[in-house]
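Section 3.1: Structural characterization of target chains.
Under the original work plan, the team committed to producing a structural model for every single-chain target entering the pipeline before any wet-lab resources were allocated. The record below documents one such target. The sequence was received from the expression subgroup and is listed exactly as submitted; it comprises 479 residues.
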Amino acid sequence: MIIEYSFPHYFMIQCFLIRNKLKNCVGEPMELRVENREINPTRFIVIGFSVVIFIGSILLTLPISTAERVSTSYVDALFTATSAIAVTGLVVMDTGTYWSAFGQIVIISLIQIGGLGFMTMVTMFAMAAGKRISLKERILLQTSLNQTNLAGIVRLTKYIFIGTLIIESIGAFFISIRFIPIYGWSRGIGYSIFHSISAFCNAGFDLIGDGRSLTPFVGDPVINFTISLLIILGGLGFTVLLDLGLNFRNRKKWAFHTKLVLVISGLLLAIGFILFLILEWGNPNTLGQIPIYQRPFAAFFQSVTTRTAGFNTIDTAGLTDASKFLTIILMFIGGSPASTAGGIKTVTFGIILFTIVSEIQGKRDTEVFKRRIPRQIINRALTIMLVALGLVVVVTMLLTITENNLSFMEIIFETTSAFGTVGLSVGATSSLSPFGRILITLLMFAGRVGPFTLALALMQKHHKDKGKISYPEEKVIIG
C-alpha cells in the first residue's frame, strides 16, 4: 500500500528523519505521527509474530498435519508453533514421527519466518509483488533488524534474504552427502534441507526420530562441522555476516560491533569447549561412552549448540550437574544481536562484563578496544539482563509450584532453554502440565521478540527523555 502525503506531512517526515540523524539514536524504536496515528514498531512486530503463531497453530491442529491423521490439542499445537517461530526447538511430540510431511512443512516454514524475522519475510513478499516499500515499513524493518540507521535498510533486507538462502543451500548440500546414503534420495534431500534451515535459524528441530536428535552422528565429521558452522553463522548476526562478506580481506574496515561479536563469541565457544571436555571426559553417560577421538567433536558441538541451537549429539539428561549449570549460563547469554539466536545476546553480556571491569579499575567510562561505550547502551544492557533474569526467575518459581514431578534442575534448565530459544532439554518438556506448557510457550515468545522489545510493546507510550526536568542528585549507599 502506497501512502500519499500532503506537503505538510512530507515536510514533517523530512524533519523527523533529519532529527534522528542528528541525534544518532542507538537502535531505539522510532516513532512517527502521520494523521494523528502513532507508529509503534515494537508493538507491530509483537502482533505480527502473534498472528503467524496463531495461523501456524491452527494448521497444526488439523488431522492432515499428523502422521496418524488425528487432531492435535490446541495447547500442544500452540506450543509447537511458538517453539518453531521462536526458533527454540522444545517439543512435546517427536517432530520426525508424530507430524506428517504437511505438518513438517508447516513447522519448517515457521522456523524460516522466525529466523529471518516477520518484517523481513513481509518485505520480500511485497517486493516480489512489485509493491513499493513505504516509510512506515522501513521504520518497522529498522526496528526488526535492530539497526541504527534507516538508510539502506531495504538493501540490507535483500542481502539478508539472499545470503540466508545461499548459506542454507550450501549447508543442505554437505548434509545430503551423509543423509542421502542413509535415507535415500527424496527423503535424504528433504531431511538435508530441513536440518540446514533448522541449524542456521538456530531452531534445533530434527527429523531423526525418537528424540535422538543428532546422537547417531556424534562422531561424524561432516555432520558435526556443517551443523556447527551453520549454527555459528546464524548466531553471529546478519549485520556481522554482511560486514565480514564485504570486508573479508581487510580487517581494519570491520565495524566495532563486528569485532566485539567475534571476540565474545569466540571466547564463549572456546571456554565452553574446554569445560565440557574436562567435565564430561569420564562421564559414562556422555563422552565416556564414545571413542576418545570422537570426544573433542562432541564437546565442541555441545559448546556450539548451547548458543541457542538445540541440537545435541550426546544425551543432555546424562550431563553432570556442573555441565548442566554451565549449559544454563551459556543458554542465558545466547547468540549475537540481529541474529537468529536468542538469549540476552553476546554483546549485552560483553558490555556488562566490560563495565564491571572498568568500574573495578576505577575508570569513569566503559572502554572496549580503545572505544568508549555510551551510558545509554550500558543502561539498556543492564535493563535487558535484569528483565530477562526476572522472567526466568518468575517462570521457574511458578513451575516449581505446578510441576511437582520435576526436580529444580530440570525446571530451571527447561525455563532457561525456553527463554534463550535454545531447545535443549533434559527430558522434562513432555512431562509438563497444560499450565506448564502455556508458561513455557509464553516464555519462548518473550525470548524470541526480546525482553526489551516486549516491554516497549506492552507500554502504552514510549517517549525518549526530553530532558526538560532534571531533579536534584542524591547519593545512596551501594554494596
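The beta strands are 33-34, 37-38, 366-368, 371-373.
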